[in-house]
Each structure stands twice: as structure tokens, then as C-alpha cells.
Write a structure and sequence with these properties.
By secondary structure, the chain is α/β, with parallel strands linked by helices. It has 2 domains: about 1-145 and about 300-335, Medium-chain alcohol dehydrogenases, catalytic domain (Quinone Oxidoreductase, Chain A, domain 1, Alpha-Beta Complex), CATH 3.90.180.10; about 155-280, Rossmann fold. The protein is built from 9 helices and 19 strands. The chain has helices at about 40-45, 140-145, 150-160, 175-185, 200-210, 235-245, 270-275, 290-295, 315-320; strands at about 1-10, 10-15, 25-35, 50, 50-55, 65-70, 80-85, 85-90, 105-110, 125-130, 135, 170, 190-195, 215, 225-230, 245-255, 275-280, 305-310, 330-335. The strands form 5 sheets. Strands 3, 6, 7, 10, 11, 18 and 19 form a 7-stranded mixed sheet that branches. The protein has a 6-stranded parallel sheet with strand order 14-13-12-15-16-17, sandwiched between helices. Helix 9 links the parallel strand 18 and strand 19. Helix 3 (about 150-160) packs across helix 4.
């Protein structure tokens, strides 16, 4: 089977390998679509994602869809369309009851945070625990279902924000997660959603997806104290500082975009003087199930995907994915079911 390997910084290749075998409680998936995430880009272009360094060849990918290839239990028939919750959870520690995504000792598909690394989904065949498999509802195909994991991330950010009914929301950063944060905010009842970015092309995608207004921050300033909730999706220090200005007094800023594992310069004065709640959002718990329902109900969300590239051109796919002028979500195709 064909498998993508990141061997280190700027090193990526497709190699043939043996098909994985299934054990008790496992299911083998014939992978058809894999989205390229920001962490995948960091592993390829920098050889690390934050503190997690590529120390051995790593297969990227945790946003996937495909069909069941083999289920030893017989519960899932071959050809059943599915997506996958990419986490295996660790052990509970104090303060994390009912929050398994925060338990230490777990793993995530396509991650160098574990040793050996947890290999990811960018391979023609993938074996996962049966409990990680999500069967797609009628009317939701694999092309759109590849967005279930990143939409789950955006929905978890909305969970961290609290009640969004009637809220005025700013989404800072119009990359794929920012666009899906727009979708999540709408799904959770936001009344007015503004999206900001430094580039015009991502903002055009946000308008097409239903943003009430967009702000190109290189040309105009964000309005001060206008938003109940800010989803900061870029991870840029200047954008985090700007979120504190844009949020109202006693507002909420949810940090969705990942930042380097090092000190960065952020202006916290507005957070203090306005008593703004700054909340982190890390992956998700079970919001992937809500994401599947939204994707099934609203085909327009699929427009977040702008390019589907064959795995034979995976290096071109990664180059395209980091150019937000040209692309939204870039998806690697590993073929369709026979």
C-alpha cells in the first residue's frame, strides 16, 4: 500500500509498504481523503510542531474519511463510509473529569508527541480502534466528511466560549479553522459574525461562507470593544493582542490557533483592565459527532475544501496548503473505493 512519510524538515515521500493487520477490537479503513492540517505543515516545513520534533519517519494526517476495509467483528460491512475520531485517550488526572482530550498519556493520529510516534492517516489502509470509527449518515459523502475533525476542533472552541446565542463574534484568521469557526459560531446561535485576516483571498472565502462582514487588518483597524466572543485562529502574537482590544468588557477570547512553545510578546493590558476571559481550546472531546450532523445538513460547508490533490503529488499539496492566497483546505486523495 502507498504511505506518505515525513522524514524530517522539507523531506516527504510516498513509499510502498505492507498492509496493516487488524487485532481484536480494531477496524481497518481504506482511506480515501486526508486533509492537511497546520500541524502537518509544521512537521514538514519545520521538522517539528511546537515542542514535538520528528525523530523518526512520520506518516501525517488526522483528518480523514474513507470506507471500511475489514472489521473482524462483522459489525461494519466492507464499503461502509466512515470518518474517524483520531484520539486514543490517556488516564484521568485531577481537574479533568469528563475531559478525556486533556488526559495525559493518550495519542493522536499523525503526531510526534509520542514515542514511538503515532502514525497518521495518509496511507491507503489504516487500522484504528473500533470505538474511534464514526459511520457517515445518509447523504454525507467522504469528500465533505473529511472536514469532520477540523470542524470538531472549531465546535470545541465554541464549547469553550460558552453560550453563543445572540452573540457578536469575531473570528481572527480566515484559514480553514477560521472558516470552520465561522460555521461553528453560526451553528451555536451567534447573531453576527465578523472575520478578519491580513489577506483578501481568505476573506472572500469567509464572505462566501456567510460572514456578515470581513475586515482586512492591514487596511482598517478592528473595532474596539465590539465583540462578546473572539475566536483567535491565527496564533500570531499581534492578533492575540488585537483580540484583547476587540473584545468587550467581560468578554471572552478563545485561543484556537497554536503558538510556539516559547515566550511570545502579547499585550495583556486590555485583558486585565476589561476582565476578559482568555481560554485555551485544545483539539476536542466528542464534538466530531456534532460536526458530522452539521456536515450532513449543510453541503455549503464543503466549500471550505478548495483543492483535492492526488497522493502522487503530495509535495505539491503541502506547498499549496501553506499558501492561503491560493487555498483553503487542501485534501490529499488516496483513491476511491473499488
Amino acid at each position: 500500500m502507498r504511505t506518505v512519510w515525513i522524514d524530517g524538515k522539507d523531506q516527504i515521500a510516498v513509499r510502498e509498504g505492507e498492509a496493516p493487520e487488524t487485532g481484536d477490537g480494531e477496524v481497518r479503513i481504506r482511506v480515501q481523503r486526508v486533509g492537511i492540517c497546520g500541524s502537518d505543515l509544521h512537521y514538514f516545513f519545520h521538522g517539528a510542531n511546537g515542542e514535538y520534533i520528528v525523530r523518526e519517519p512520520l506518516t501525517p494526517g488526522h483528518e480523514l474519511s474513507g470506507v471500511v476495509d475489514h472489521d473482524p467483528s462483522g459489525a461494519l460491512a466492507p464499503g461502509t463510509p466512515v470518518t474517524v475520531h483520531p484520539a486514543r485517550f490517556g488516564s484521568e488526572v485531577p481537574g479533568t473529569a469528563d475531559q478525556p482530550h486533556l488526559w495525559p498519556g493518550g495519542s493522536y493520529l499523525g503526531s510526534a508527541s509520542t514515542w514511538p510516534h503515532t502514525q497518521g492517516a495518509m496511507a491507503e489502509l489504516l487500522v484504528v480502534d473500533a470505538g474511534m470509527v464514526r459511520v457517515l449518515p445518509e447523504g454525507l459523502g467522504v469528500d465533505r466528511a473529511v472536514l469532520a475533525e477540523p470542524l470538531g476542533v472549531a465546535l470545541h472552541a465554541a464549547t469553550r466560549a460558552g453560550d453563543l446565542s445572540g452573540a457578536r463574534v469575531l473570528v481572527s484568521g480566515a484559514g480553514p479553522i477560521g472558516l470552520l469557526a465561522l460555521v461553528a459560531a453560526r451553528a451555536r446561535g451567534a447573531a453576527h459574525v465578523v472575520v478578519s485576516d491580513v489577506l483578501p483571498e481568505p476573506l472572500e472565502r469567509a464572505l462566501a461562507l456567510g460572514a456578515d462582514r470581513v475586515v482586512r487588518v492591514t487596511e482598517e483597524a478592528l473595532p474596539a470593544e465590539e465583540f462578546d466572543v473572539v475566536f483567535e485562529c491565527s496564533g500570531a502574537p499581534v492578533a492575540i493582542s488585537a483580540a484583547g482590544v476587540a473584545a468587550r468588557r467581560r468578554g471572552v477570547v478563545v485561543q484556537v490557533g497554536m503558538v510556539p512553545n516559547e515566550p511570545i510578546g502579547v499585550n495583556l493590558a486590555p485583558f486585565i483592565s476589561k476582565e476578559i476571559a482568555l481560554r485555551g481550546a485544545f483539539r476536542f472531546r466528542d464534538e466530531i459527532d456534532e460536526a458530522i450532523r452539521i456536515l450532513a445538513a449543510d453541503p455549503r460547508v464543503g466549500d471550505v475544501v478548495t483543492h483535492v490533490i492526488d497522493v502522487a503529488e503530495v509535495d505539491r499539496a503541502f506547498e499549496l496548503a501553506r499558501d492561503s492566497r491560493q487555498s483553503g483546505k487542501v485534501v490529499v486523495s488516496l483513491g476511491d473505493a473499488a
